[in-house]
């Protein structure tokens, strides 16, 4: 089956004032759609790969035929990362860090505040286009990582709790080149409930 653009889990204006509706609509209907289209164009060359899920394709990139591997990394990664991104966010200040994820995060990073300092420093320090993520690594530890372009954490054995898109297209209309202001605003949009849900799936009580 061809890959398709998923619906957003909220309205385009749901994240205002931190992310405006126009930016969200362009990001979803133009940028994300473009990754989906380009992924399908690449897979049309090897249609047997439509049998695999997006996760299967990205988990072991070395198995992708060489002639389309870069296209799958960029566009399959772009498609997957944006799904992670939409699910990383919720209406402003509508969720809080709590429960077992809170305990684990504070054990790893000290306080929520010092976690945020490290996370925002990673997002700010990603050179050029890319992402910063809170993940569970293959050895089952919480970690903050960065990836460039559309390289995706699942290609490296990580499970994503949430991630921020720091490509300029994610924030330019509102923030122009002020990535630091966008990152600071994004703190209000983290979907902690979703992150907790994934954490508790990996570490059942
Ligand atoms: Mn993007």
Quick summary of this structure?
The chain has eight helices and three strands. It has 205 residues and is mainly α.
Structure description:
By secondary structure, the chain is mainly alpha-helical. The chain has helices at 21-43, 54-59, 66-88, 99-109, 112-125, 172-175, 179-186, 192-202; strands at 130-136, 142-148, 159-165. Residues 27, 31, 82, 165, 167, 169-170 line the site of manganese (III) ion.
What can be said about the biggest beta sheet?
Answer: 3 strands, antiparallel
> Per CATH, what is the topology of the largest domain?
minor pseudopilin epsh fold
Number of domains: 2
What percentage of the residues does DSSP assign to strands (E)?
A: 5-15%
Secondary-structure content class: mainly alpha
Determine the number of helices (DSSP H or I, runs of at least 4 residues): 8
CATH level 1 name of the largest domain: Alpha Beta
CATH superfamily of the largest domain: Iron/manganese superoxide dismutase, C-terminal domain
The largest beta-sheet arranges its strands as 2-1-3
Our measurement of the CA-to-CA distance between the termini, rounded to an integer number of angstroms, reads: 36 Å
- The stretches of 5 or more residues where confidence is low (pLDDT under 50) are none
Total strand segments: 3
Using only CA atoms, what is the Rg?
17 Å
Which geometry do the CA atoms define? globular
Compressed to H and E, one letter per element, the order equals HHHHHEEEHHH
Just name the CATH architecture of the largest domain: 3-Layer(bab) Sandwich
Helix content: 40-55%
Average pLDDT over all residues:
97
Which compounds are bound in this model? manganese (III) ion
């Amino acid at each position: 089956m061809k890959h398709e653009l998923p619906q957003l889990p909220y309205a385009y204006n749901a994240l205002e004032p931190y992310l405006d509706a126009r930016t969200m609509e362009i990001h979803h209907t133009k940028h994300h759609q473009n990754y989906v289209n380009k992924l399908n164009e690449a897979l049309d060359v090897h249609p047997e790969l439509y049998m695999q899920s997006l996760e299967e394709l990205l988990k072991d990139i070395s198995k992708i035929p060489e002639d389309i591997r870069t296209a799958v990394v960029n566009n399959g990664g772009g498609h997957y990362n944006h799904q992670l991104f939409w699910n990383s966010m919720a209406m402003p200040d509508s969720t809080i860090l709590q429960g077992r994820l809170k305990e684990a995060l504070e054990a790893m990073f000290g306080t929520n505040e010092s976690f945020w300092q490290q996370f925002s420093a990673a997002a700010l320090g990603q050179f050029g286009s890319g992402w910063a993520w809170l993940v569970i690594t293959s050895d089952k530890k919480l970690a903050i990582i960065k990836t460039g372009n559309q390289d995706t954490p699942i290609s490296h054995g990580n499970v994503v709790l949430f991630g921020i898109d720091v490509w300029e297209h994610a924030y330019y209309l509102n923030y122009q080149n002020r990535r630091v202001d966008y990152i600071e605003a994004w703190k209000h949009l983290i979907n902690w409930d979703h992150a907790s849900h994934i954490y508790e799936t990996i570490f059942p009580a």
